[in-house]
Design a protein that fits this description.
The chain contains 11 helices and 14 strands. It is α+β, with helices and mostly antiparallel strands.
């Protein structure tokens, strides 16, 4: 089991996407119309620093996230924040500041600051806009992510199942209804390539237009040639989108949200995943009994308040399985949601340290919460759990997983 903790740091910068070795038209194809921004155009970036390791058995922390903010923040605010990257950061005088290149450079800049730490910086994820992000991994791989939206109507049914089987598996979703979908296309390479990057802007934009033309404001059961006579599920739709990129853009995987708290993800190696989110509220206090008051205050700050504090937590569980060609489903939606809710029920609206057994003898850090939650939920899901994420603030997330990319 791999345990990770992430911390976000925000910054603002301007940049121009333009490679001198290419013509104006070639740059437009590579980077889009922004290549014509002679003096740069701006972005509000969010960098997520992902660390991996095992929590300290005493403190329950893999790494103090304040330490991440302090060290990584020095680099971000000194070299990236409120800069025109092409001229103010020497790295980008000869390198185009794409999301992938910025992400990789931030990882290279920050990683040495944590040499010697038991927790290792394993990845940096950079969100450039709500529709564009990149992830750089310490092992060398790089990913480019593109998000887009579409709306469509459907009945969640399989023509290979009887009416009663469809009703049992999909419930009220067998009736005609609609979703505002949000899809993420991910391209992956073993390293940052010289330009052109992971797909050109023209290629990606063309693929997204094609997919939206096929799916947007359509009835998926009858209006889409490639889906006729096939199960119409979130799983099958994510696989359809993945295959739409075959031969056009080398997609690594596709994540498709039919709602904020539920998604399916199809990988080009045949892997299929389902993710579900559930919100719960709880109070806690971060405290190590063997430490002095001064030590606890220094380590946990306001989180050591003797009267406690609380969070509106978000738990995200991801399961893996074989795609069923007959039903088009990986799992029963209601059963997955109910398993997650039942597993969380003992903690809901409780003080974790005072009212639950799991944290009477260990600090209720995010790391310890996910470690305590994993076996309970994995058992309820027949050992199909591959990733469990806990969001406890806008800045922090802890997660154990059995799979790599997120």
């Amino acid at each position: 089991m791999l345990l990770t903790v992430s911390k976000r740091v925000e910054f603002s910068a301007s940049r121009r996407l333009f490679a001198q070795k290419f013509s104006v038209e070639e740059n437009r194809k590579l980077f889009g119309e922004e290549s014509a921004a002679l003096h740069g155009t701006g972005r509000n970036y969010v960098a997520y620093f992902v660390f991996s390791g095992q929590p300290d058995p005493t403190t329950g922390m893999l790494i103090n996230i304040s330490e991440i903010k302090e060290r990584a923040g020095q680099i971000i605010h000194g070299r990236y924040d409120h800069c025109f990257l092409n001229e103010d950061n020497p790295t980008f005088r000869d390198k185009v500041p794409t999301a992938e290149n910025i992400c990789r450079q931030i990882l290279d800049d920050v990683a040495p600051l944590f040499d010697g730490n038991t927790a290792k910086l394993v990845a940096v994820h950079l969100r450039e806009t709500p529709d564009r992000s990149a992830t750089a991994y310490a092992a060398g791989a790089i990913e480019a992510n593109y998000w887009f939206d579409f709306s469509a109507a459907r009945r969640t049914i399989s023509p290979h199942l009887s009416a009663s089987e469809n009703e049992k598996l999909f419930g009220i979703s067998t009736g005609e209804h609609g979703h505002n979908y949000r899809a993420r296309l991910t391209l992956r390479a073993n390293s940052v390539a010289t330009e052109p990057q992971l797909g050109t802007e023209e290629e990606i934009s063309s693929l997204i237009r094609l997919i939206r033309t096929q799916l947007d404001h359509k009835n998926l059961n009858r209006d889409v040639d490639g889906l006729r006579g096939k199960p119409i599920t979130t799983e099958s739709l994510s696989r359809f989108i993945l295959r739409s990129g075959s031969g056009k853009v080398p997609l690594s995987r596709v994540r498709l949200h039919e709602r904020d708290d539920f998604f399916a993800e199809a990988w080009n190696d045949g892997g299929m995943f389902l993710g579900m989110r559930e919100v719960f509220s709880a109070a806690h206090r971060l405290h190590v009994p063997s430490f002095s008051d001064a030590q606890n205050a220094e380590l946990f700050g306001k989180c050591n308040n003797p009267r406690g504090h609380g969070h509106r937590y978000v738990a995200e569980a991801t399961i893996v399985g074989e795609y069923d060609e007959r039903s088009g489903a990986l799992a029963n939606f209601e059963e997955l949601r109910d398993a997650l809710r039942r597993a969380l029920a003992p903690w809901r609206d409780k003080h974790l340290d005072l009212e639950t057994e799991e944290f009477r003898d260990q600090p209720s850090t995010g790391e310890n919460i996910v470690r305590a939650f994993w076996p309970k939920l994995d058992s309820a899901l027949q050992q199909r759990l591959v990733r469990l994420r806990l969001f406890y603030s806008a800045q922090g997330v802890a997660q154990p997983s059995r799979v790599g990319p997120t």
